């Protein structure tokens, strides 16, 4: 028996209903902020990702050569694709551009809880606005999306400038090591690293930076840097909107990619793989042939959100099972068509069995049974049975539809 590929999943209807319900809430939230949905190709030229992340990313990607000899890859993330699309299609659109996407991505890595080889991202990109207000909006959109589905999580917000200022005279390779320790809040590892490289004088400032409770404490450590007003502006908006967050000037999120504000969110019940959102400022358009354009965005790990939420009850509209003896099947389909035309889900019995067996089967998944026998057909009626209450009455199809739709979702 063939099995699904490692790191992928099958979703049955009930689970898909839960995912779509959560996704719909996020879509609604993004729309209220003025973000419109976009869609990019599932596969792209491999250079789109190696130009940004270097050749080492190849080992994490599903790559292939097409029939024209071109090197292609299944997308490992979507931000680069959106930036490429902006350069191709969006440069004439009035700025700022507010886009969101829901897409599956592919990475060849070791599968574990909350980490898969095929996974879904819900992302937002704000392109063409270079301001504290733009940074704050993106953070608030992420928070709104996650709160809209009822996720219990912690939001951490930082800015790279104070850390970069302190590390300005340090070799780039060492910078990456140091930022890795800061990102993990591994102060012992940080101290050992700085000691071995002759930069022990930075230990106090850097360890103090990750412990700052507000921007002013950071400026006491690194001085009044050029980005100070922007940093103050971001946190001022977040405070004014009463967003729940914690300051963390130790967030690294890739020195070679993010340029300013950075933020992350962590669910409370996922163990080690608990990051559910990450984002910040970046500039990619110029890499793909466009103008150097300020951009800000984030990606939500939709699969981790669903794992964190656990079993959630998706709204389910009433289901009507249309039952009939074999000789009345054509009439049963006509009745079902009329029910569906009113926006109600109707399922016609397709197996050759008696009405009693049909009722038993219908009771496993339907809310109502609409029985169409010879007598009902001649009278232009149906017998509607409430499968939860056990009550049944003969009535017209229109009256049956009114009865069902009046009950609302179950």
Automatic annotation (TrEMBL):
A biological process term (GO) from this entry: histidyl-tRNA aminoacylation
Key word Metal-binding present: no
Principal EC category: ligase
Protein encoded by which gene: hisS
Keyword Metal-binding: no
GO molecular function: ATP binding; histidine-tRNA ligase activity
Record keywords, A-Z: Aminoacyl-tRNA synthetase, ATP-binding, Cytoplasm, Ligase, Nucleotide-binding, Protein biosynthesis
HAMAP family for this protein: His_tRNA_synth
Reactions performed catalytically: tRNA(His) + L-histidine + ATP = L-histidyl-tRNA(His) + AMP + diphosphate + H(+)
Residue span(s) of domain Aminoacyl-transfer RNA synthetases class-II family profile: 32-325
Protein name as it appears in the record: Histidine--tRNA ligase
Compartments (UniProt record): Cytoplasm
Annotated binding of L-histidine, by residue: 77-79, 107, 121, 125, 253, 257-258
Family: Belongs to the class-II aminoacyl-tRNA synthetase family.
InterPro entries (UniProt xref): aa-tRNA-synth_II (IPR006195), aa-tRNA-synth_II/BPL/LPL (IPR045864), Anticodon-bd (IPR004154), Anticodon-bd_dom_sf (IPR036621), His-tRNA-ligase (IPR015807), HisRS-like_core (IPR041715), HisRS/HisZ (IPR004516), HisRS_anticodon (IPR033656)
Known EC number: 6.1.1.21
GO CC annotations, alphabetized: cytoplasm
């Amino acid at each position: 028996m063939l099995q699904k590929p490692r790191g992928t999943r099958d979703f049955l209807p009930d689970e898909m209903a839960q995912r779509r319900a959560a996704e719909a809430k996020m879509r609604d939230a993004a729309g209220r902020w003025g973000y419109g949905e976009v869609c990019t190709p599932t596969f792209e030229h491999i250079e789109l990702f190696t130009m940004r992340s270097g050749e080492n990313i190849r080992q994490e990607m599903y790559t292939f050569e097409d029939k024209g000899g071109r090197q292609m890859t299944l997308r490992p993330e979507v931000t680069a694709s959106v930036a490429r699309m902006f350069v191709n299609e969006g440069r004439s659109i009035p700025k700022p551009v507010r886009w969101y996407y829901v897409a599956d991505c592919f990475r060849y890595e070791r599968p574990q809880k909350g980490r898969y080889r095929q996974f879904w991202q819900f992302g937002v990109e704000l392109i063409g606005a270079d301001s504290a207000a733009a940074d704050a909006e993106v953070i608030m959109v992420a928070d709104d999306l996650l709160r809209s589905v009822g996720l219990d999580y912690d939001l951490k917000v930082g800015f790279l400038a104070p850390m970069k200022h302190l590390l300005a005279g340090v070799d780039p390779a060492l910078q990456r090591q140091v930022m890795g320790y800061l990102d993990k809040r591994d102060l012992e590892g940080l101290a050992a690293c700085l000691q071995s490289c002759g930069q022990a004088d930075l230990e106090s400032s850097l360890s103090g930076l990750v412990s700052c409770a507000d921007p002013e404490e950071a400026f006491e450590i690194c001085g009044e840097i050029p980005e100070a007003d922007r940093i103050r502006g971001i946190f001022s908006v977040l405070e004014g909107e009463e967003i729940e967050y914690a300051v963390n000037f130790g967030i690294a999120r890739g020195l070679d990619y993010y340029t300013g504000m950075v933020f992350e969110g962590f669910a409370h019940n996922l163990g080690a793989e608990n990051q559910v959102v990450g984002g910040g400022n970046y500039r990619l358009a110029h890499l793909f042939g466009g103008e150097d354009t300020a951009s800000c965005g984030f990606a939500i790990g939709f699969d981790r959100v669903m794992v964190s939420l656990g079993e959630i009850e998706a709204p389910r509209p009433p289901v009507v099972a249309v039952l009939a003896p074999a000789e009345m099947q054509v009439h049963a389909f006509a009745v079902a068509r009329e029910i569906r035309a009113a926006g109600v889900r109707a399922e016609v019995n397709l197996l050759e069995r008696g009405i009693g067996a049909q009722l038993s089967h219908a009771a496993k998944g339907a809310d109502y049974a609409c029985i169409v026998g010879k007598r009902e057909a001649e009278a232009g009626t149906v017998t509607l049975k409430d499968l939860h209450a056990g009550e049944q009455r003969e009535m017209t199809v229109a009256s049956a539809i009114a009865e069902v739709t009046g009950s609302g979702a179950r």
